[in-house]
Each structure stands twice: as C-alpha cells, then as structure tokens.
Task: inverse folding
C-alpha cells in the first residue's frame, strides 16, 4: 500500500486490519465496494471465515483502486505541496470526466440530454409517501425524478445516490439485479455533481430512508468539474460570491435566501397593487443624472452620438407621471451609482420608489411601517424578527424623532442645533460643538452651514445607535433639495429617513412642487458641481418644465429593497442578498474544490452615503 500515492494512513491501517480480524454484524468500509463480502464468505448459518492469505494482496489492490476513485470525487492536497500541487491535479480531474463523457458517446449514450420529464419532486415524494413503513416498497408507484448527485455510495451490487432537486434531497436506491447492464455503466460513468434522471418504484429502507427504487436511469448532464469537498463545502466568503452557482448547489440556506427575496418583492407588488398603485417603467439611460446626489456611470450611444449616464434614481421620471395625471405610481428597478463598496453598498442595487398624489410625508410614514410589517409577517410569520444579535420589533407604530433631538442627546453640550442661527457665528458655534463631541475634521471641513453640521453630527454620532425602527424627521433644507419646506420650521423640510439596525432603510418627503424654489435648489447644486463636487447633479430643465406644468401635492417614498431583504433574511452583508454582486477584478485558477484568487491592486474607496430619494 505504501507504493500508492493519494491514500492516507487510515487506508493502510484498515487494509491490514481487514486481513486479520473477523468482522461480525458490521457493514463494509464506507466507499469500499462490498469489502465485507470480499474479505469474508458466509458459511454455516451466518458464521464467517477469513480468506486465505494468498487473497490479501488482491484485496489491498481493490481498496487502493477505490481510494483512487474517491480521490477523483474529493481531491486532497498533500501537506506541504500547496497550491502548485493542486494546480497540477485539477486538469486530471477535468480530463477524467471528459473521458467519461466521451466513453458514453462511444457507447451510443448522450452525456448532455435534451429534456427529461420528472413527475414528482423530493418535497412531494416525502409528503406523498410519509406513511410508507420501513423496509416496505410501494410496487404500484411509478415515479420519475431528476436532480444533481450530491453524494454516492457503492457497495458491490448496490448503490445509493443522494439526489438534490430544487425542493430538497431524496435517495436513489440502485440495484444491479434490477438495472442489469446499466448498473455497470452507472458505476463507470456517474460522479458526484452529475445531473441524472431516474424512474422506478418507491421504497423505504430498513433504516427509514425514503428512496426511489430505480428501474432505469439517464444521464442528463455530465458535470466536468467536481463539487467542493463534502466535509468543508464552499466556505470561503469571497469565493462564494465569485462562484455563486456552486454556492447555490452546496449551500441550501443560500437558495432559501433568494427564494425569500423573490417572495418579498412579489408580496410588495401585491400590497401596493391592492392599494391602487400601478407599476410603471422609466428609462435606465439618462441624458443627465438627477434625483440624487451620487456619481453616475457614464456611457455613450453610438448611433445618436450622445453621452449618457445610467440612472442614479427613478424619481424625476416618476414625478413627471404624477404631473401627467397618474395619482399612484411605483417602480421596482435597478439603480447604478459609481460609489464605493461595503457591507451595505453595491454599485448596482434594487430600490422601489412610489409617489402618491394628494399625500404628504406623514402619509408616507404610515404606508411605510404598515407595508414593512405586513411583509415581515408574510415572509417570516411574525412582526418580530431576529437580526444578527438583535431582536427587531416591527409592530407598529414606530418611533418618530427629529434629527435635532437625536443630535442634542449626543452632544456633550446638549446644544439644540435647530435653534442656532445660520450665520458665520452660528456656524462656528455648531462646528465647535461637533468637535467637542468627537466628530473628525475630515467630516466637518465641507460644512458651510449649520444645517450641514447638524446632518454630519447625526451621521457620525447617532445613526449607528438606531437599532429599532425609527423615523428620523425634519432634515435641513441644505441636504434635501427635492423636499418641500417644513410648513412651520424655516430651514427644515418635511422629510424622514427610516433607520433599522443602524442603517438607512427608507427615505421620503412631502415632494417639492414649487418650480421657482426647485430651480433655486438645482442651481445651488450646479454651483457645487462647478466647484468640483461630482456627486451634485446639473440643472434638469426637462423636469423643471414638467413642474411648471403643475404637480399636485405629492408624497414620495424610496426603500432600498436589498437592505430590506437583509433585515428579513438575517443577512449580515448586502452581497448575501444579491445573486451576483460586483467584486473587484481578480484572476482565478480553479483547483477542484479550491479556487486560488489573485486580486488585482485596488485603491481603497469609501462608500458615499446612499440616498434613495434625495
């Protein structure tokens, strides 16, 4: 045995022990086909005797051949050999599987089938035959199943495959006496990871495993790459995102998360449709960015000779629909912002924006808390949901508090910045209070008004502490260019942001409908842009023209759907709820269940604050 590379010390030990010890009432070694029947032959009513020593060399050879087959399904890296050795092994695994597919073709079989008609899923099978007793077969059953082989065990004339479909797993019970010559082909051609179909009766084994007792099997897709190691799975976080297709195969919880995502979006649509909203679609390509303070992605339309941007918000087009006479509209769509990446930020993300004529931000608060509570109950069964180490109570009503109140509580001086005049002296007073509280100069250096200092203090001192659902209201006008002025507090707007677990989840306001005021605010943003602020948008003349046509009083709301899904699925990072998140450029070498990533140099970037409807 020492002359066979790839077999661990356990194989040497068991090969030796198997040759000298009488084995009573115990099955063969896992993965070694019919070892018990090979070593010992039953005689005299079940007693066993060992084979002559002359046969032991043959047995060891069989064990080693089985070990080589195991290595094909689950390759291991010899200690000290490292990645270079792994890179040498990978082509062998790939070529072995390619050779099997070629052998199938030579035998007139198709390794990549055109179709198959399964009649039952793993979940349906478990429900339909839950009362089948152990050791019994339903010979009248005739079922067809299809899925991916996640594990295979072969014991001489019997084989047991774990098959996984979209709903769960089931066992294929494969008997040579029933499959005849096809059993030999199955052993020779099928590896873990292959997609197969099978037809047969239903049987529950003596140990209680519900199985499809196959009469026939079909290769549907020959997998040319093996699955990750069955003991460790795909656990590297970065690798999971880069190879999401493998992540979905081997991690059932990931599939559950994306099913919940689909349900959340579907339930959201249903909830709004029942309230009289209609879903619309607006352009992704814009002549100029607008609707938020964010740096856009830029592109060019060749035929029209136009420079365009990908949208950073759906807001302005949706408001133009309100001008046109629709009273309640919403859009669920992808937004693109050329900003940093973090656990809460992805350059492309999904948001919902909705607008309701004749409503204000108070109406939007009520709509927001009711919709999110109802979504939580629908998806999780409860309005109280776990999130990481917190328990979040989504039962209404939620807390409402002004930005100035929160900042006053956080400042050592307990200064109410909403009472500080917006003068040079007032600005210096606000800056000193912020410095005393520990807000860094790098955050304060761009603040040119008391309102901006107030907003900065809130972001640096208060946001992270807002764990339970909290509506933060009365934002300064300087950071709310599209919100209507507060009806009783000059310098502030009728706007709220919803915070849960320390992050912004929604943003809404009483929409600004005065085109004169809107132009002044756009012009202030354009001045910032001219001074070098690339996140400030230019003046949008088309939107101003629409406002001049007349827009009714309107409440608007934006919700980050990815962040909402994070909350309702207890996901710690936005990458866990986006199927294919953007990752920095990397080159990769696939090594069986291991992928070596060589990341390209990437400058450190800090995500800009995400505004959904600013």
Result:
């Amino acid at each position: 045995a020492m002359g066979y590379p790839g077999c661990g010390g356990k194989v040497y030990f068991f090969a030796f022990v198997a040759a000298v010890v009488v084995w009573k009432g115990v099955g063969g070694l896992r993965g070694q086909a019919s070892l018990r029947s090979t070593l010992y032959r039953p005689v005299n009513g079940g007693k066993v005797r060992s084979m002559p020593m002359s046969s032991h060399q043959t047995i060891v050879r069989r064990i080693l051949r089985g070990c080589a087959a195991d290595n094909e399904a689950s390759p291991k890296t010899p200690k000290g050999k490292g990645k270079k050795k792994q890179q040498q092994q990978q082509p062998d695994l790939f070529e072995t599987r390619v050779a099997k597919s070629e052998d199938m073709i030579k035998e007139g079989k198709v390794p990549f089938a055109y179709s198959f008609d399964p009649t039952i899923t793993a979940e349906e099978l478990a429900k339909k035959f839950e009362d089948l007793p152990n050791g019994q077969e339903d010979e009248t059953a005739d079922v067809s199943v299809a899925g991916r082989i996640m594990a295979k065990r072969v014991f001489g004339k019997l084989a047991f495959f774990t098959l996984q479909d979209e709903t769960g797993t089931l066992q294929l019970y494969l008997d040579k006496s029933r499959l005849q010559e096809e059993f030999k082909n199955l052993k020779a051609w099928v590896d873990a990871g292959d997609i197969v179909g099978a037809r047969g009766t239903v049987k529950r084994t003596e140990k209680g495993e519900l199985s499809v007792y196959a009469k026939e099997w079909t290769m549907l897709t020959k997998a040319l790459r093996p699955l990750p190691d069955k003991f460790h799975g795909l656990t590297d976080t970065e690798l999971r995102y880069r190879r999401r297709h493998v992540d979905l195969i081997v991690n059932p919880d990931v599939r559950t998360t994306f099913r919940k995502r689909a349900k959340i979006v579907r339930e959201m649509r249903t909830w709004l449709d029942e309230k009289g909203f209609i879903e619309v679609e607006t352009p992704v390509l814009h002549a100029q960015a607008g609707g938020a303070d964010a740096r856009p992605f830029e592109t060019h339309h060749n035929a029209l000779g136009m420079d365009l941007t990908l949208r950073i918000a759906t807001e302005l087009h949706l408001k133009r629909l309100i001008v046109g006479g629709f009273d309640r509209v919403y859009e669920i769509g992808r937004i693109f912002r050329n900003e940093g990446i973090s656990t809460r930020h992805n350059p492309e993300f999904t948001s919902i924006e909705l607008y309701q004529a004749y409503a204000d931000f108070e109406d939007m608060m009520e709509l927001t808390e009711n919709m999110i509570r109802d979504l939580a109950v629908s998806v999780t069964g409860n309005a109280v949901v776990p999130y990481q180490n917190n328990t979040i109570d989504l039962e209404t009503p939620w807390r409402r508090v002004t930005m100035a109140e929160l900042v006053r509580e956080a400042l050592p001086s307990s200064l109410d910045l909403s009472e500080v005049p917006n003068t040079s002296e007032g600005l210096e007073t606000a800056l000193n209070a912020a410095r005393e509280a520990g807000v860094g100069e790098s955050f304060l250096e761009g603040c040119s008004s008391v309102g901006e200092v107030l907003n900065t203090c809130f972001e640096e001192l208060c946001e992270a502490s807002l764990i339970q659902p909290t509506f933060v209201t009365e934002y300064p006008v300087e950071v709310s260019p599209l919100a209507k002025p507060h009806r009783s507090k000059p310098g502030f707007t009728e706007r709220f942001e919803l915070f849960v677990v320390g992050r912004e989840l929604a943003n809404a306001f009483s929409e600004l409908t005065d085109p004169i005021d809107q132009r002044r605010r756009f012009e202030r943003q354009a001045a910032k842009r001219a001074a070098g602020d690339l996140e400030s948008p230019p003046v949008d003349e088309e939107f101003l023209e629409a406002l001049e046509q007349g827009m009714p009083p309107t409440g608007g709301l934006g919700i980050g759907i990815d962040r909402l899904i994070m909350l309702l699925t207890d996901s710690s990072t936005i990458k866990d709820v986006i199927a294919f998140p953007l990752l920095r450029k990397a080159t990769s070498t696939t090594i069986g269940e291991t992928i070596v990533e060589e990341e390209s140099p990437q400058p450190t970037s800090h995500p800009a604050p995400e505004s959904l409807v600013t």
Summary: Residues 1-89, 588-614 have pLDDT under 50 and may be disordered. Residues 243 and 580 are 9 Å apart (CA to CA). The first helix runs from residue 9 to 20. The chain is about 35% helix and 25% strand.
